[in-house]
Amino acid sequence: MKLFGFLLLASVLLSCVRNVSEESVDGQEIRFRSNIQDLKPGRLSRVDGFSEGDKIFLYIAKRESADVVAVPASEDLCKMNYGQEGDLTFADGGEHYYPDGRIDVYGYYWEKEHSEPQELARMNVSVETDQSNGLDKSDFLYVKAAEGYAKDAEPIKLEFEHLFSKIVLNITTETPAIIDLTQLENVKLHDVVTIGILNLGTGEVENGGTKDEIVMPKSSNSSVIILPQELEDNKKLFSFQVAGIEEPFEVEVPANNFEQGKEYTYNVKVNKYPGMGPVEMQFSMSVKDWYSEEPYEIVIEKGEEIEVLLTEVAVEVNISKADLYLASGEVKRELKGIAVVDNKMKFVFPRLVEGESLRLEKAIFYTDNKESFEYYFESEELRGNNYDRVALPAPKVGDAWAGGTIFVVGKVTGYNTATAEFETNMKGINVYRGRVVANESLGELEWCDLHVKGYAREVGATDKNNGAINTDIVRTFIENQGEDVTKYPAFNACLNKGEEWYLPAINEIKYIVSQLIILNPNIVKQGGDLIDDGIVYGSSTERGRDTEYSVKDYHRTTGTDAKDNAAIVRAVRAY
To answer: Which chain regions cross the lipid bilayer (predicted)?
Structure first.
């Protein structure tokens, strides 16, 4: 196999200058062995395997000091020949010896033709968009041996690994008289990243924005190679046609991450029984290491299309679409964009074991007027038997919700200071809105450190009813001042809980304390920390400019105090 024939011989002869020294023949000659042959599928085949004389490119970088890893540079390039026994020899035919210090080794084997990389931190890599003739010019093997090898009589062992991902499409049918898989046409992989940038020093690939189709072999069992990437949910990944059937077959798949060195097999079964209506399609997917014989993880088993009825939907709420977040054991499922007609959802039911139920954990429902709301389920099991009923009653104060306990139901429209209660809108979709308090305490924390800029000035976090507003203001202030959010411990702890959690405003935390009798039963059930009216809780609300010194103060449930005086923190979020 003639590889990289366009590389100039002069560049090879001038390479390795600063990596090796031939001044002392008493040193150890550099020798390498690799595991490349073990990684190649069908390695006895001339097309898929390696042959003696195939070229491998190594960058041998000499360390300036024994304990500092040397990154590869263009002048470190050494062209190697591969031997049948796994040994690598220098292509220039010369003998090369260890330098006085240690060396780090980086390298790759790539069957696809490419120019020599000019910047090793941004080495362009890509896959063919037409792989209809197989995989013989796409696979990329990468090695990093940054262990600081010193003089040794033993060869340096290089462990190459696949940089790309392999995708296998396996199509079967039980009705070959109607669906003739020997007459496949237009087999394609859709909308995948085909161009990326490799940092040779780290082995990390940064994908470019280019997405393209990949033409696959016209076979019922075919493979392509792609860059590692994230696959969005409900994506049309494959399409193919069968002669005599006008409409193409399209395979939509759940979200998945394609990792380097992994092989993903999609088993698609298509049947069209005489007199039984449209084509029936089922699929499953398995994952294994590229060079392994057996799959190590079964991601999904076949799914049957089922119907689920939504009940107890609030008046004036017309649901048109749903995103479902399900679990089967420890495996998570996300089914997005499911059409809802007359409160009925139809979707393919993806479970690990046939007959097994799925746990419905959360849903996002979209209405006719383009609004949406989240709904959280505590113990909802779907059996996938077309008799599933999912009730959507409006939640109430004290219910478990969104990782906490509800303390306000409805869209908050104001705060009644006379009654010390929140005013809410409970019409239509707003019955599914509200706020929750975290079940656990985040401990006793300061509003901010004594020495930060937010201590001695008013930051602007003066809202008394919505801590989300205050938290955003403080976060923006910290960024603009170039300060560290950890110096604002109460805010930092709430933000670290995750998206949408915030440090409550003073009226929020006071109202939470006033509702402790209703809230604590669920908090106990969830194993949390009880709300206690004997505890001093902090808020995100600054006192403001009431007096000359008040800008240094913030509101707590017992009054105001300096921002560096700690109080117990309880995170809040809206839903």
So the answer is: none
Which tokens in the block code for residue 565?
């005086």
CA–CA dist 42, 63 (Å, integer): 38
- Asked if residue 114 lies in contact with residue 128, where contact means CB atoms within 8 angstroms, the answer is no
DSSP state of 505: P
Residue 150: predicted pLDDT: 80
Comparing CA positions, the residue from 22, 106, 120, 122 lying closest to residue 61 is 106
Q: How far apart are CA 302 and CA 313, in angstroms?
A: 31
Q: Which of 85-99, 317-331, 380-394 has the lowest mean pLDDT?
A: 85-99
β-partners of residue 82 are: 88
Report residue 4's pLDDT band, with 50, 70 and 90 as the boundaries: very low
DSSP code, position 494:
H
Note every long-range contact of 322-327, with CB atoms under 8 Å and residues 24 or more positions apart, other chains counting.
Answer: 322/363, 322/364, 322/365, 322/366, 323/363, 323/364, 324/360, 324/362, 324/363, 325/360, 325/361, 325/362, 325/363, 326/350, 326/358, 326/359, 326/360, 326/361, 326/382, 327/358, 327/359, 327/361
User: Which tokens hold the place of 452?
Assistant: 């930060």
pLDDT at 464 over 70: yes
**Distance (Å, whole) CA 442 – CA 572:** 11
Please list the residues that pair with 254 across neighbouring strands.
none
Q: What is the DSSP letter of 116?
A: P
Residue 519: DSSP 8-state: H
**Sequence-distant contacts of 366-369: CB under 8 A, at least 24 apart:** 366/319, 366/320, 366/321, 366/322, 367/317, 367/318, 367/319, 367/320, 367/429, 368/318, 368/320
> Sheet of 221-226: strands edge to edge?
221-226, 165-172, 262-271, 280-289, 297-300
Phi then psi for residue 495, to 5 deg, are -65, -35
pLDDT for 477 beyond 50: yes
* Both tokens assigned to 491: 């805010």
User: Among 106-120, 320-334, 347-361, 490-504, whose mean pLDDT is lowest?
Assistant: 347-361
Which residues, 6 or more positions from 88, have their beta carbon under 8 angstroms from its beta carbon?
Answer: 31, 32, 33, 34, 56, 58, 80, 81, 82, 158
Comparing C-alpha atoms, which of 268, 267, 256, 260 is closest to residue 291?
260
> Which residues lie below 8 Å from residue 13, measured CB to CB, with a gap of 6+?
92
Give the separation between CA 563 and CA 556, rounded to whole angstroms.
10
pLDDT in tens, 143-156: 988 788 887 778 88
The amino acid occupying position 119 is E
pTM of the model: 0.54
* 55 touches 4 (CB < 8 A): yes
167 token code pair: 């995708």
In order, the DSSP letters of 318-364 are -EEEEEEEEEETTEEEEEEEEEEETTEEEEEEE-SSTT--EEEEEEE
Contact 286, 313 (CB under 8 A): no
CA distance 353 to 362: 22
One-letter amino acid at 399 equals D
Please give the biggest Cα pair distance in the chain: 93
In the structure encoding, which two tokens stand for residue 81, read together?
């020949």
